[in-house]
Amino acid sequence: QMQLVESGGGLVQPGDSLRLSCATSGFILDYYSITWFRQAPGKEREGVSWFNGGAGSSRYADSVKGRFTISTDNVKNTVYLIMHSLKPEDTAVYYCAAKRISPTDGSRWHIAYEYEYWGQGTQVTVSS
User: Fold this and answer.
1) How far is the CA of 30 from the CAs of 10, 46, 109, in angstroms?
2) What are the b/e assignments for 2-33, b being 16+ CB within 10 Å?
3) DSSP 8-class letter at 30
4) Which of 28, 36, 50, 90 is spaced 20 to 30 A from 66 at the CA atom?
């Protein structure tokens, strides 16, 4: 059974750091793209960061470049989103999602409806 389980969210202050985890089961990460999305109240789901398990390449939304890093631990089958310099506008439910790698992933990684598998989400709140 293919499953994604997020953890690591919480309440932090502006400028703090946080590490989110996406524990995967049933996936061979070399064959899948794993993406972190987020959704704030009243807003559309937004692609935050993408990792191509086969090529080892990654992408970031402009809003998080230089602050967030995506990484994987293939032994633990876990994908991490390491977030620094958090801002109130980073407040959202964060989801990880997976789909089989395709040639167009580099330009379409942020399109939520193309993902087959989703976790349940973890809340991140940045507030003073």
Assistant:
1) 30, 24, 16
2) eebebebbeebeeeeebebbbbbeebebeebb
3) G
4) 28
